[in-house]
Amino acid sequence: MNEIFGIPVQAFLGQLMLGLVNGAFYAMLSLGLAVIFGLLDIVNFAHGALYMLGAFAAWIMLDKWGVNYWFALILAPLVVGIVGVAIERLFLKHLYGLDPLYSLLLTFGLALIFEGLLRDQYGVSGQSYPVPELLSGATNLGFMVLPNYRAWVVLASLAVCLGTWYLIERTRLGAYLRAGTENAKLVQAFGINVPLMVMLTYGAGAALAALAGVLAAPIIQVNPLMGSNLIIVVFAVVVIGGMGSIMGSILTGLGLGVVEGLTRVFYPEASNIVVFVIMVIVLMIRPTGLFGKEA
């Protein structure tokens, strides 16, 4: 069998793999958005900029201090997580209880500031980041050649996404987080520091975005526009999965990445809009998204 639906098998599977890689990034970024919106009720338009900051942090660490990829996987999310904590403490804490539109406008402005600062410093041309030696090359599976780094991205993203879901939905800490955002005064009466939990939750969401940026750095050119080019699609993924639904964001991100990849095979002209077409259809049928809760 050399063809699938009239497409050469290797070309079909190659696009399927590319779709899975894109879906992994969609899942990780939409997961961070879902955590921040679901627990804090913040529409975080700075998420794409935090993703970009993670990639730039990894590149700068390598370029200036020789920090390799494996250390950058830890240090870059930590640095951007601290930036996220600063954003929450300095700006977002003043908007709690207000319409989410205010947080959207504020984070959109912050995203433009981050993007403008890095564009002024480094321009818009991309900076290359090398694939770590351990993950270089490819594995011949017989029916296709699988790039090792792309396989790593998919596996690492799945592990992070499922680990985050388990932490929030199946642990006592996750229960405290959910309870603290629903009734802060009651939870504080039990001696739990809710403002600290909120601050760390936003920082963790920022760190997730930065981790996705580090994973993306060896695949795409690191540049100030990489976040703004992706965030609109990721918001569409979150809306389709259901605002605030963590598992919905994971499954929808992976699924839409595959759909987008296969669309490039069968109808390339529609590959850039297929996610938005699906979003329109889903909102017409189920306004809360596929996995969202009815009000």
Question: Can you put this structure into words, describing what you see?
Answer:
The chain contains 11 helices and 4 strands. It is mainly α. The chain has one domain: ABC transporter involved in vitamin B12 uptake, BtuC, CATH 1.10.3470. The strands form 2 sheets. The protein has a two-stranded antiparallel sheet with strand order 1-2. A hairpin with a 4-residue loop joins strand 3 (138-140) and strand 4. Helix 2 (47-65) packs across helix 8 and helix 3 runs antiparallel to helix 8. The mean pLDDT is 89.
Structural class computed from helices and strand pairing: mainly alpha
What is the molecular shape? globular
Q: Look at the structure and give the CATH class.
A: Mainly Alpha
Residue share in helices?
Answer: 55-70%
Q: Tally the beta strands.
A: 4
What can be said about the biggest beta sheet?
2 strands, antiparallel
- Portion of residues in beta strands equals under 5%
Q: What is the gyration radius calculated from CA atoms? A: 19 Å
Which parts are unreliable, with pLDDT below 50 for 5 consecutive residues or more? none
The CATH architecture name reads Orthogonal Bundle
Count of discrete domains: 1
Count of runs of 4 or more consecutive helical residues? 11
The SSE order reads EEHHHHEEHHHHHHH
Strand order of the largest sheet: 1-2
Distance between the termini: 49 Å
CATH topology: ABC transporter involved in vitamin B12 uptake, BtuC
Question: Quick check: average pLDDT?
Answer: 89
